[in-house]
Amino acid sequence: MKLVVIDEPKKTIHDVRIGNHVKIYDFVNLYGCEIGDETRIGTFVEIQQGVKVGRRCRIQSHSFLCKGVTIEDDVFIGHGVMFINDNNPSIEKTRNKTWKLEPALVKKGAVIGSNATILGGLVIGRNAIVGAGAVVTKNVPARTTVVGNPAKKLEKYK
Ligand SMILES: CC(C)(COP(=O)(O)OP(=O)(O)OC[C@H]1O[C@@H](n2cnc3c(N)ncnc32)[C@H](O)[C@@H]1OP(=O)(O)O)[C@@H](O)C(=O)NCCC(=O)NCCS
Predict the structure, then answer these.
(1) Atom 43 in ligand 1: which residue has the minimum CA distance?
(2) Substitution candidate for ligand 1 out of 154, 156, 158 with most atoms within 8 A of CB
(3) Fewer CB within 10 Å, N- or C-terminus of the chain?
(4) Taking a C-beta distance cutoff of 8 angstroms, is the pair 50, 34 a contact?
């Protein structure tokens, strides 16, 4: 056996507005989006067209930020977080291009735990916390912690 080194481009970055001191790890797919100053983008992250990521954010590996997502400053997105922008997809709507984009807003200082799923059309409030593995189906108020599927306010903080 031979040790093989394949020296191919390790990042796909097209038409992206990138702020100062941004760190982008390898094997990302970023296109038509905006990344604010001092933000870090982990390995295997995809960020689609029109997405805005604020300043000083952490987007950890394997997360997917689809079209329609806006992330304000100082937001922490854990590993494998999935955003959704069409809550009722169908192959017909996709073929006919009649699906309606349902945008999401994550406000300043919010934390989204690993493997959380955020349905379309929602707002995650300022400094809110979404627990690991949560499926968020409703807006999360500011400074509120939610966990579970469907995500509910964590009992100990009630
Ligand atoms: C939601 C979270 C912030 C709560 O932390 P906490 O306030 O310290 O809560 P506790 O550990 O005291 O747990 C309180 C209760 O909530 C439950 N709980 C905690 N996190 C939960 C989660 N993600 N999903 C479901 N239930 C959860 C605990 O089992 C416990 O239940 P009990 O009272 O019936 O025993 C944390 O558990 C979490 O999910 N953090 C995300 C971490 C992450 O994804 N980091 C990413 C990078 S490493």
Answers:
(1) 113
(2) 154
(3) N
(4) no
Judge whether 20 and 37 are in contact, CB under 8 Å. Answer: yes
Q: Which amino acid is at 44?
A: F
Architecture of the domain spanning 12-157 = 3 Solenoid (2.160)
pLDDT given at position 158: 65
Where are the chain's structural domains?
12-157
Q: Which two tokens stand for residue 75?
A: 């937001």
- Whether the CB of 114 sits within 6 Å of ligand 1: yes
Per-residue model confidence as pLDDT tens digits over 47-101? 999 999 999 999 999 999 999 999 999 999 999 999 999 999 999 999 999 999 9
For residues 17 and 7, give the distance between their C-alpha atoms in angstroms, rounded to a whole number: 26
